Amino acid sequence: MSCIMVLAEHRQGNLRDITFELLALARNLAEPMKLKVNCLLLGKDNEALAQNLTNFADEVTSVTAEILANFNSEIYRKVITRIAKEHKPSLILIGHTAFGIDLAPGLAYELNLPLITDCIEVLHENNKLVMTRQVFSGKLNARMRFKTESGVLTIRAGTFKPTAPQREASIERSEMNRKGTIVESALGGLSPELLTGYASNFLGYEEAPTTGIDITKADIIVAIGRGIKEQKNLPIVEELAKTIGGELACTRPVIDAGWLPKDRQVGSSGKTVKPKLYIALGISGAFQHISGMKQAQTIVAVNKDPNAPIFSVAHYGIVGDLLKIVPTLSEKIKEIGLK
């Protein structure tokens, strides 16, 4: 076992945030395990991305080919399998994203390795890795271990905070200003002919319609869930957001109902936000939503259910009907001139 391998995720020439989160986790685990961090990058034009990744990994394995320009799980799985068999990593880290959910099961099967998905914590305890994932819709945390010496993990986005580049964060003085190396690999030793004839093809990216507002940059967010009940009640929360200078956001059910555009969604299938203030109105607190907002500095929750999971992450909570509480809150804020 030689390394912890991180699969870099990128889109249209930009590395995704999850890549740096995985590299931070890998670095934390690699030190007590005395392993190196290897970042595997597949793509068409890798030079700039690979150079960036050397700030965070000991080694960047770069596989460059036209056929790898866009993600295709069948092709990526074939290439990654070959490279993983050469490196024999102790652990393979993949983001629990659309990319990872599609890729990880088949990759684990090809490598004959166990797979634990959607991990929210990975610890090194008594020379063993202990993974935590949520079960029963986030009501319980399950701690798991591999029975084998190595395995594959998918990690929930937003769970781990990216750290400084290793040349800045290294403890050893001799390590300061050290960057990782780049190793070029030609399709993982596979000929292009072996990477054709698959059932799936990349067609293109279709961006969701946007309102021109980026909620990830908002200092204050007012978010709504099923508790809003009907679309006609939206003006109530819109008034609160306007009063405190915040942006309106929501959970997936509100998007599915067509009440707000997709770019307003917070959660694992939406956006991850880190505002100074997050007001959750009528949101029960499914883990998919919590994963996208739990890093807010201050969280205020309003829900009729005193046992709603959202209260477990909220700093302040109000048990009650948002349709009665929010109008009163807006009026009081206007009275004292708070904004």
TrEMBL record:
Its cofactor is FAD. Residues 4-186 form the Electron transfer flavoprotein alpha/beta-subunit N-terminal domain. Pfam families: ETF, ETF_alpha. GO terms for biological process: fatty acid beta-oxidation using acyl-CoA dehydrogenase. FAD binds at residues 226, 251-252, 265-269, 282-289, 303. Binds 1 FAD per dimer. GO terms for molecular function: electron transfer activity; flavin adenine dinucleotide binding. InterPro entries: DHS-like_NAD/FAD-binding_dom, ETF_a/b_N, ETF_a/FixB, ETF_alpha_N, ETF_asu_C, Rossmann-like_a/b/a_fold. Keywords: FAD, Flavoprotein, Transport. CDD domains: ETF_alpha. It comes from the Bacteria. Belongs to the ETF alpha-subunit/FixB family. This is Electron transfer flavoprotein subunit alpha/FixB family protein. It comes from candidate division WOR-3 bacterium.
